[in-house]
Amino acid sequence: MDPNVRPETMERITTPELAQAFIDEQIAAVKEQVGDRKVLLALSGGVDSSVVAALLIKAIGDQLVCVHVNHGLLRKGEPEQVIQVFQEELGANLIYVDAVDRFLDKLAGVDDPETKRKIIGKEFIDVFAEEAGKLDGIEFLGQGTIYPDILESDGVKAHHNVGGLPEDLQFELVEPVKLLYKDEVRVVGKQLGLPDNMVYRQPFPGPGLGVRCVGAITRDRLEAVREADAIVREEIGKMDPVPWQYFVAIPDVKSTGIKDGKRHMGWAAVVRAINTVDAVTAQSVEIPWEMLCRIRDRIIAEVPGVNRVLWDVSDKPTSTIEWE
Ligand code: XMP
């Protein structure tokens, strides 16, 4: 039987009971695979790696070493939440790497989207490999591979994820959720006690806010993207149903604004909300006018440097979901 093929008899995990049975089964399987040896896991704070971390903590406790790399392109509050949930609440063996300067220095002046992605991917590998090199006795690499990753290995995600993990890190893989679909991973995460805002999180690109700070990334515009994104997540998060993905991009363009009777130049924050099934096509979602006005008022009042708010109503195709 091919371990990368989901058996037809495998029941879809839709209830807490089925999730618990899956968790118990995987704990036993991981214990069997790993024994008393050590596993290293890159913990981004996304759904898949978070669920794998929580599962492995249950299975092997301190034999799991999690590495959280803060590349400076994460959303507001994300690194703090990873530390809070995994180190403080679940007692994980967590190494937090503040690599913000390193990433932003490498990205300075680079405006080509694919070059930006390559730099972020390569730097991530380098930082992770450096951390791995400092540790003794690691024999396994934990990974949040899920079934669509296996099925669509040349799909959207693979196309974007130029990085991947280093081949010279010759570790055996531990991939406990590799036969699960995303909705099942969420049910398992919920059963493992992870917070809702982690389990039901919208998709977030690997290069993070880097592709939403359109053009060459500067620290001030990146901060503006992060603050505006937090506002948009809070406000659009109140819609029912919430759109599949919603965020802000700030292109490297300034336009004229007026404040206290004086003209000044500022950025335009672009709000985007879309629905999609598979990210291959996407439809712009209608945001209620009152909500849009509230978003506008909050961004203008709370985000330094922004003097204009736009709503991107484009569908994919022709417009991709992200701005670059
Ligand atoms: P596009 O912009 O191509 O995005 O319509 C389709 C989906 O993929 C996400 N995306 C990425 N995901 N690394 C990722 O892991 C990336 O470099 C990347 N670029 C885009 C995007 O957010 C959307 O959900």
Ordered list of secondary-structure elements with their pairings:
Layout lengths: L15 H19 L3 E5 L4 H14 L3 E7 L7 H12 L3 E6 L1 H8 L5 H22 L3 E5 L4 H5 L4 H5 L11 E3 L7 H10 L4 H4 L19 H18 L8 E5 L4 E6 L2 E14 L7 E2 L4 H14 L3 E6 L13
Parallel strand pairs: 1-2, 1-4, 2-3, 4-5, 8-10
Antiparallel strand pairs: 6-8, 7-8, 8-9
Helix pairs in contact: 1-2, 1-8, 2-8, 4-5, 10-11
Rg, Å, rounded: 21 Å
SSE topology string = HEHEHEHHEHHEHHHEEEEHE
CATH homologous superfamily caption of the largest domain:
HUPs
Silhouette: globular
Hetero ligands: xanthosine-5'-monophosphate
Do you know the CATH topology of the largest domain? Rossmann fold
Mean pLDDT: 95
In what order do the strands lie side by side in the largest sheet? 3-2-1-4-5
**Beta-strand percent range:** 15-25%
Helical percent range?
A: 40-55%
Structure description:
The chain is an alpha/beta fold. It has two domains: 16-199, 3-Layer(aba) Sandwich (Rossmann fold), CATH 3.40.50; 212-312, GMP Synthetase, Chain A, domain 3. The chain has eleven helices and ten strands. A hairpin with a 7-residue loop joins strand 8 and strand 9 (283-284). The chain is globular, with a radius of gyration of 21 Å. It starts with 15 loop residues before the first helix and ends in a 13-residue tail after the last strand. Bound molecules: xanthosine-5'-monophosphate. Residues 117, 156-157, 160-161, 203, 205-207, 211, 245, 279, 316, 320-322 line the site of xanthosine-5'-monophosphate (XMP).
